Amino acid sequence: MVTLTHYLILSFLLFSIGVAGVLIRRNIIIMLMSMELIFNSVNISLAAFSYYLHSLSGTIIVIFNITIAAAEVAIGLAILVAVYRRRKTVYVDELNKLRY
Amino acid sequence: MEMHLQRLIPEFILLAMALAFLVVGFFIPKAASNGSRKTFGIVGILTALVSGASLFLPGTGTALFGMFIQDNVSVFFKGLFLIVLMFVLFTTIKYERELSQWKAEFYALLLFATVGFMFIASSSDFVSFYVALEFVAVTQYVLVAFRKETSDGVESGLKYLITGALSSGFLLYGISFIYGATGATGFTEVAAVVEAGSASNAFLLIGIGLVVIGITFKISALPFHVWAPDVYQGAPTPVAAFLAAGSKAAGFVILMRILFTALGSVKTEWMIFVAVISGATLIFGNLAAMPQKDIKRLIAYGGIGSAGYLLMAVASASSLGAGAVMFYLVVYSLSILAAFVSIVIVYNNEKSYLISAYTGLSQRSPLLAATLFISLLSMAGIPPLGGFIAKFYLIAAAVQSGLLVLAVIGVVMAIVAMYYYLLVIKSMYLRYPVNNEPIHIDGATRVVLYILNISIIFLGMYPGPLTDWVMDIATVLF
User: Fold this and answer.
1) Is residue B287 part of a domain?
2) Which of B13, B243, B326, B419 has the most CB atoms less than 10 A away?
3) Where is B61: in which H helix or E strand?
4) Size of interface A-B (CB pairs under 8 A)
5) Residue B396 lies in a domain
6) What digits encode the pLDDT tens for the residues B305-355?
7) 225-264 of B, contacting A, C-beta below 8 A
């Protein structure tokens, strides 16, 4: 029997992997992938709540969120291309020009 | 619970003009684009005026089946956003030489972002709030990275995007827990469930924590403050002004709506949490501002400190605090705009944002030096300027709610703030300039600078009408 807790633990694990990926990995493409993981882990949690609460609004947020995450990653990749053209790197360590 | 589209007229006006900008900009030949830049800016300012006038039309109530609420608080904030937009558009006209590849999109995106701010101010449901917030975020990622041919521009754009997307993840995870605890997404429905005590407490607390942390990105408070200095430095200067004034106000209006309206009945649970964030933000922002050598970074760290002051009033969870937040945001926006208009004019002459470029400014242009003097001292909170009264109300709200430690930190940090703002003022007034060439300011800029200076001083000398008004409308939130 799969309960709400199982889904929440799965969602929490994926969320943690995503946050760790953004914080630890230095490759911007992998950081963007980790962000997708964060958004999708939240989608799991929302869908699970929606199913077990017998309420539709959670599912609606999921659908909005899929669209928004796609828009965000589109902008992210566009900025990444601009960064690569200008700086010839995809590693955040090398983006350290802005400081006092 | 019906559509009531007439309540969205102010947003529709801006939206229509932004779409028109995109279409018209497409047909303007490259050769004519120089002359058309100013036209776009002026048309944008006029559109903002019309939209602002239409705020008085629709009356209060809900729209879009309860997702959208038009009350006095949202009208107040929409007015503030439109004022910010007008001055930012003016700054853009002055700045546009730097946008070498000029496109009509820049003006259109500013208008789109303002529409997003207005929807945030009016959202009364977690779904509409999240969509409006992401709408703003996506437009601002583009605006920040707009100078894509410069290496600073793209770097700041990427930093803003990564912090922004991470914070949206936290925010949405928090929303999912609040939804899981209450089974509702509308602020009033959530409030009803929470008040009845039938919400799962653990889920609710995790949700509140994550939502507050997610919103700290918008207001540039700890722990999502890291983007502010880099983005202010690398983004086009008008966009930095827009983020400083607009984004902060949008973050606070929604933070107040969520914490006061939806979760007001469990305020004992989140007061300490917000107070801790506020104290950490106050200390970090003000101490980190001290060694800065770039004026935009200095203002960014000062802005982090201001977020700490504003959170202090949010932590007080009273209508005095909510009114103080609104008053502070008005004064802070005016000061930020006055400072950024001067920064752009100085940059056009000096091609530098370093504080050393301001040496002896008072002898080269008394008006610019006086504007920076007034705006920086207002942000530092010195009487008789508006910033003093604003900080006074914020600290008073904290004391009234018994947050004495926080109030003491606030007063001590006000002294630290005075130190780093006075360093700029010292180099403007007490040093001799390297070159004595006077800085020319045209008539329109003079008028704008006089308007901003006089309103900052006026709000300090005679704050009564505005404070009475904000204290009155703040009661809507509870």
Assistant:
1) yes
2) B326
3) strand B61-63
4) 125
5) yes
6) 999 999 999 999 899 999 999 999 999 999 999 999 999 999 988 888 888
7) 229-230, 233-234
